[in-house]
Amino acid sequence: MTFDFTPSQATFRDALSRVEAMLRHKDGRLPGAVLKAYVERFFTMKEVFLDLAEVHQEPLYVLDHANLKKHAAMFKNAFGACFSDFACYYAMKSNNHPEVSRTLIDQGFGLDVSSGVEVERALALGAEDVIFSGPGKTDKELFLAVENSGRVKVLMDSLGEMDRLNRLAMQAGKRVRVGLRITPPSSPWKKFGVALANLGAAWKKAQECPGLEIQGLQFHTSWNLDPSQQVRTIAAIGREIGQWSPEMLGALKFLDIGGGYWPQAGEWQVHAVTQAGQVMKLAGLDVDRPLEHYYAPAQSLDVFAQSLYQAVETHIFSTVPCRICMEPGRWLCNGAMHLLLNVVDKKDGGLVITDAGTNAIGWERYEMDYAPVLNLSRPALDEKACEIMGSLCTPHDLWGLSYWGQDIQPGDVLLIPDQGAYTYSLKQDFIKAPPRVISMP
Ligand SMILES: *Cc1c(COP(=O)(O)O)cnc(C)c1O
């Protein structure tokens, strides 16, 4: 039996190229001192988690409001130090728990949504400033945006979508605020946005649509370990709008530079494991070493803010002053949830089984990503090899190949910190119910 979500070829190729990039960076090992400091920080908070485990006696997603608020403030401060006119929209898909969005709305964030369901959720949360982006919006979804045009801006993905939205807006007697999404020239994905070569014509056409008020441009690049992809895209947009007429530029009120900011800890990776659960060699890595971890370092937010500001000032503000918008997801919510599990069984070879399965996070994350598993019941700054598996009837149900602690036994409480991004939203109704979400006291 396998998960019904298997990474596509494209995802796999992407993962492979990231492992290769990682190997090019020095030796690509996650420094032991960094890892120990990280683990120690969570062990010092162990009582809070042990109390929750004792009270609830079941696997939990622990919602960490304080950490989320801290990251929201850090994000705003870093960019606020550079940009005088900027707005942040939280990408709801990265963690769609209502409390996460609500907390960020309270911190002054707008919401970035990608479907009718997400528009409805955003409106129900009381969000006043919602941007709706994404390919293939249906008429029904567009109509929802038209009906709520005071609170929702549509970032249009194609000329076809522009036609349909204009028609729906005119029928409703409304004028909808819109932006145009651009396909970043370097992007491997052509399914998002309009090619730069067609941008000028698309902009002019939007200006002629009576149902639309065209205001801005948007792009999004993923997995930004550093700002280079964003800077290249900003430069390309600058060259394009440098050719625009004053009438075209006069309408440009915002440039939305998307999200994709990688958390500063970098990308932590396990050696790779095949679909059959066997350790394999990937891109020349000697992978049969559960205590070795690899990482691709990421830049600090200050470096992102400074580089992006420089790029925008050089390539955009020189032509037209405008508001800068951002759509962070992962960077904000990664530390907003932690997973708390209980060891149920221990097999002859030492393998342990937990009460939760990885349906809790919806994909085979820990076959690729390294997330330290902390044994809160027997804490020690010592990592031991041990297969930690969930209780689903599939061998892909892996939490990790090691734990931090003195020992591991049935009844122990395990913590996997910082599992807030692209986990909770992807949880599956597969064999087990996903864990409940409990707020950290
Ligand atoms: C997913 C997404 C984001 C957020 O990406 P993160 O990597 O979580 O920061 C922002 N904008 C758009 C359009 C997206 O699709």
TrEMBL record:
This protein's UniProt keywords: Pyridoxal phosphate
Pfam families per UniProt: Orn_Arg_deC_N
One example GO MF annotation: diaminopimelate decarboxylase activity
Segments forming domain Orn/DAP/Arg decarboxylase 2 N-terminal: 67-332
Cofactor(s) the record lists: pyridoxal 5'-phosphate
Active site: C393
Acetylation among keywords: no
Domain of life assignment: Bacteria
Swiss-Prot/TrEMBL GO biological process terms: lysine biosynthetic process via diaminopimelate; polyamine biosynthetic process
Residue positions, PTM N6-(pyridoxal phosphate)lysine: K93
UniProt xrefs under PANTHER family: CARBOXYNORSPERMIDINE_CARBOXYSPERMIDINE DECARBOXYLASE (PTHR43727:SF1), DIAMINOPIMELATE DECARBOXYLASE (PTHR43727)
Name of the protein in its database record: Orn/DAP/Arg decarboxylase 2
Organism field: Desulfatibacillum aliphaticivorans
